[in-house]
Amino acid sequence: MAEANVSSDATVRLRVDGLAKSYGTGDKAKVVIEDLTFTVNAGEMVCIVGPSGVGKTTLLKCLAGLQPATRGQASIDGRTISGPPPEMALVFQDYNRSLMPWLTVRKNLMLPLRHLRLPAAEAKERCDSALEAVGLSHAEHQYPWQLSGGMQQRVAIARALAYRPEILIMDEPFASVDAQTRFDLEDLCLKIRQDFGMTILVVTHDIDEAVYLSDRVVVLGSKPAKVLKIVDVDLPAPRDQITTRSLPEFARQRTDVLSLIKRPA
């Protein structure tokens, strides 16, 4: 197994230890991911990258408690994840399916708060704060279908923020928008991490995005998927779409990550 750069227990929020997932049984079992080990520290931004079909979304579902691991485990603060963790929220790639088109933006944000049984004033404050954080206070009474793709994804992010998660997991969150909107949403993601102090894990196919956003990049490869390497990203803060992407160190690190993904199995 590749060196996994396991971090100090004092700062680890999310731990993946020997995680494996297969479908089916016996000789017909299909092993998708195998013996994955890595950690995500409190307040850290980590991106997971790898070739298409390597098992990134399967890993995410295990981390979110949406399906059980076959072997190994994932844990938050030392507690094994056996179902959706209450301190975690997810943002999916397909915002069209995750938002309710018959509900206004505000009502979409209110929907997951119902089971928390919050006082009305607190629920309103959470929605107000989340909408302000993503720059959509002016759109609270509009419907998703009246908004651009980038604005719809901002609504999906705001809905997660209203839940006040400690850990935010995002699955290809900006893949369905144009390049300029993608840059804006990447910067929003960095702002959210700074303003809310969240621990954020992002699954992405975009190598440049992973290097731009991350403190560390977990590179998956092979089939079944394994951790090839964990790349520490040491770029200056605050990061900027023009300045950061122009740095020689940015180019070097994106080349390092891409070389790992393109390396023959």
Structure characterization notes:
With about 260 residues, this protein is α/β, with parallel strands linked by helices. It folds into 2 domains: about 1-85 and about 165-265, Rossmann fold (3-Layer(aba) Sandwich), CATH 3.40.50; about 100-165, no CATH class. It is about 30% helix and about 25% strand. The protein has 8 helices and 10 strands. The chain has helices at about 55-65, 95-100, 105-110, 120-135, 150-160, 180-195, 205-215, 250-260, and strands at about 10-25, 30-40, 45-50, 70-75, 80, 90, 165-170, 200-205, 215-220, 225-230. The strands form 2 sheets. The chain has a 6-stranded mixed β-sheet, with helices on both faces. Strands 2-1-4-5 form a 4-stranded antiparallel β-sheet, covered by helices on one side. The longest helix has 18 residues, at about 180-195. The protein is globular. Residues about 1-10 have low confidence and may be disordered.
Write the layout of secondary structure elements.
Blueprint: E1 12-23, E2 30-41, E3 45-49, H1 56-63, E4 71-76, E5 79-80, E6 88-91, H2 95-98, H3 105-110, H4 120-133, H5 149-162, E7 167-171, H6 179-196, E8 199-203, H7 207-213, E9 216-221, E10 226-232, H8 248-262
Parallel strand pairs: 3-8, 3-9, 6-7, 7-8
Antiparallel strand pairs: 1-2, 1-4, 4-5, 9-10
Helix pairs in contact: 4-5, 7-8
